[in-house]
Amino acid sequence: MALDAKRLKSIIGGSAGNLVEWYDWYAYSSLSLVFAATFFPKGDLTAQMLGTAAVFAVGFLMRPIGAYVMGRYADTHGRKAGLALSVGLMCAGSLMIAFVPSHDTIGIAAPAILLIARMIQGLSVGGEYGASATYLSEMATRDRRGFWSSFQYVTLIGGQLTALAVAAILQATLSKTQMADWGWRIAFLIGAVLALVVYILRRRLAETEAFGKLDPNRPKSGLLALWKAHPREFVLVAVISAGGSCAFYAYTTYMKTFLTNTSGFAVQTGTFIMTAALIVYMLAQPVFGLLADWLGRKPMLLLFGFGGMIVSVPVFTILATTRDPVIAFAIILVPLMLLSAYTSISALVKAELFPAHIRALGVALPYAIGNAAFGGSAEYVALWFKQGGIESGFYWYVTAVVGAATIAFLMLPETKRTSLIEED
C-alpha cells in the first residue's frame, strides 16, 4: 500500500524531532572526554571518565520513570502530546548543562547540577522512545512498517552523528584550552535551541488514526493494567531491550572511548572513525527494515542474536591492538551490521505486541527497564573492568547479555503475522 502525503509528512516530522532529541542526549557522551575535568576534581583520565560515565548511567536510571509517566501520558492524551512534552524536557536539561559553572568555581554543586540535568534528560528520553516508536509504527502501512519504523533508528543514529559532527567541528576550530574552558558548552546551546524549534513542530503534527479511533471509555493505561494483561510481553521486551541496548551502547557510545582509552587513537581520530562507521550503520537501517518486511521479524532478530554472541569477544580483542584507522573502521562495521538487524525493527516489534490503548506504555516501560540496567551502564561496566585490569571481562559480559536476548527472540511470535496494530 502506498504511503499518502499526510502519513509521509507525519513520519518525516516525527523523525526530525527524534533526531534532535537524540542529539541532545548524545552530545553528553560525545564530549565527555573534554568536559570531564570541568565537573570533577583533577585526577587521572580514567577516574574522571568514571565520574562522567556514572552520571550518564544515572540518566538512564531515570528513563523507566519517564517511560512510565509519559507512556501513560501518550496513551491518554495522544502520541504527539507525548512527543512534545519529551522534547521540552530535553531542552531544559541541555540549557542547564550549557550554563552550569565548573567544579573549580562552585565545588561539588557542579557535578550535582550536572546530575540533575541528566536526570531531566533521562525522563525525556524515557518518554521519547515509547511515543516515537508508537507514532511511527501506527503511521506506517502494514506492508512497509519495517521500512518506515526503521527511521526511528535512522534519526537516533543521525542525532548521534550530529553530536559527533558538532564535537569534531568544535575540536577542529578551537584550541584544546578553549574547548575545555567553554567550547564544549556550544554543543548544548545548539541542542537547546533545536529542541525548542522541534517542540513547536511537534505541536503541529497529525495524531495517529489508531489513537483517534480509541473508545473514550477504554481501559486506562497503567502499570498494573499492563502487567495483568501482558506479563509475558513485558518480560520479553525488557530482556530483548537489555541485550540490544547493551550491544548498541557498547558498539556506538562506548566504542569511541575504547578507541581512545584502549586502542590508543587520538581523540579526533577516534571521533572520525566512529563518524564514518555510524554513517554506514545509519544507512543500513532501512535496508534491514525492508528485509524484515519481506522475510519477517524473527529472522532479523536471530541474525543479530547469534551473530552478536559470536563476534563480540573477537571484535573487541582485535580492536584493542589495532593501530590502523582503516582496519579499525572495517572491524567495527561487523558488529554494527549485525546490530542493524535488531535496531531497524526493535521499536516496531515491541509496538506490534501491544494493543493501542496501552501501546506507548507497553513499548516504553519494559524497554526503559532493560535499557537502564544494561544499556546506560555499559560504559561504566566497561571502565570498571578496565580499571580492575580485566578489560576482556567486558567482552564476555556483552556476549552473555546478548545471549539472554537471543533466548527471548526465540520465544517471541512472528509479529509480522500477529501484529496488534490495526490496519487503517
List the helices and strands and how they pair.
Layout: H1 5-39, H2 45-61, H3 63-77, H4 79-99, H5 103-106, H6 109-139, H7 145-149, H8 151-173, H9 176-202, H10 209-212, H11 223-229, H12 231-251, H13 253-261, H14 267-295, H15 297-320, H16 325-343, H17 346-351, H18 359-374, H19 378-387, H20 392-411, H21 415-418
The main sheet comes to: none
Distance between the termini: 11 Å
Give the tally of β-strands.
0
Radius of gyration: 20 Å
Structural class: mainly alpha
Give unreliable regions as ranges. none
Oligomerization status of the protein chains: single chain
State which percent range the strand residues make up: under 5%
The rough form would be described as globular
Order of H and E elements? HHHHHHHHHHHHHHHHHHHHH
Provide a count of the helices: 21
Helical proportion? over 70%
Query: How would you state the average pLDDT, rounded?
Result: 87
Describe the structure.
The protein has 424 residues and is mainly α. 82% of the residues lie in helices and 0% in strands. It contains 21 helices and no strands. Helix 8 (151-173) runs antiparallel to helix 14 (267-295), helix 12 (231-251) crosses helix 18 and helix 15 (297-320) packs antiparallel against helix 20 (392-411). The N and C termini lie close together (11 Å). 58% of the residues are buried.
